[in-house]
Each structure stands twice: as structure tokens, then as C-alpha cells.
Design goal:
The chain is α+β, with helices and mostly antiparallel strands and 134 residues long. The protein has a single domain (7-129), classed as Gcn5-related N-acetyltransferase (GNAT) (Aminopeptidase). The chain contains three helices and five strands. A five-stranded mixed beta sheet has the order 1-2-3-5-4, sandwiched between helices. A hairpin with a 6-residue loop joins strand 4 and strand 5.
Length: 134
């Protein structure tokens, strides 16, 4: 099973972006890092239209397909979503995987928009969750 996720308020999210810049540049190389930053910039531009600047962000959550459908994702995300609810905050995520929409919907996320990402040309969905939505 592989999983990595971050649920953060907006100001902490910005600090996390700054911390990972050097590591991503080394991992992706200059061209890959340039593409990555263009993708993030495009997504941030779209995000600004949704009044989510104070919302917490679910950055990355992923499980190997063999581990899906067993309740693991919901159990891993439960403490973070409980913290969001306790803070009375909204949260959001972006997903490129249409198959994940029902999963996130069961956790209280609603599709806020469906977009084509300009660098990759791939579709993605912005999903938002109000506090205590599940």
C-alpha cells in the first residue's frame, strides 16, 4: 500500500509548497519542474474562483488498486477530516481520476468544477467539502 497525504490550512499549504520546491526540482529536473509549476499555477488560478482560500487542502491520497475497496482510504483520511471538522473549516482536493469521485463523495466532498489542465490536457475535478459534511 502506498499513501501520502497532507491536509493543511491555506497558510501551511503555502509553506509546504516552498519546502518541497528544491526536492521536486532535483527529482523532476528543470523541464519537469517547469511543467509541475505551470500545472500548479493553472490549478491555483482555477481555485481562486471558488472562494476556498481559507479551506484546508487534501494534497495527495493514493492506494494501490489491490488495496482499494477495503475501507483503508476512508480510515486513513478520517483523522484529518475530523481535524478539519473540529476546526470548522472547509477542505478541498483535485483529482485526475474520475473513478475516485464516488469515494470522495461518500466522504462529503462535492464536485465544485470539472476542468481541462492546460499543460497535460487531462481532465481534473475540483471537489470541496464543508465541515461535518460526511
Amino acid at each position: 500500500m502506498r499513501t501520502a497525504f497532507t491536509l493543511r490550512p491555506h497558510d501551511e499549504r503555502q509553506a509546504a509548497y516552498a519546502q518541497r520546491e528544491d526536492a521536486l526540482r532535483a527529482l523532476l529536473g528543470e523541464q519537469g519542474f517547469s511543467h509541475f509549476t505551470a500545472i500548479v499555477d493553472n490549478m491555483e488560478h482555477v481555485l481562486a474562483q471558488h472562494d476556498l482560500q481559507d479551506a484546508w487542502y487534501l494534497s495527495i491520497a493514493g492506494f494501490h488498486p489491490d488495496a482499494q475497496g477495503q475501507g483503508l482510504g476512508a480510515s486513513v483520511l478520517a483523522p484529518g477530516l475530523a481535524a478539519v471538522d473540529a476546526a470548522g473549516a472547509a477542505c478541498f482536493l483535485e483529482t485526475y481520476n474520475e473513478r475516485s469521485l464516488p469515494f470522495y463523495s461518500r466522504l462529503g466532498f462535492l464536485v465544485a468544477g470539472h476542468y481541462a489542465e492546460a499543460v497535460t490536457g487531462c481532465d481534473y475535478w475540483l471537489m470541496a467539502r464543508q465541515p461535518n459534511a460526511a
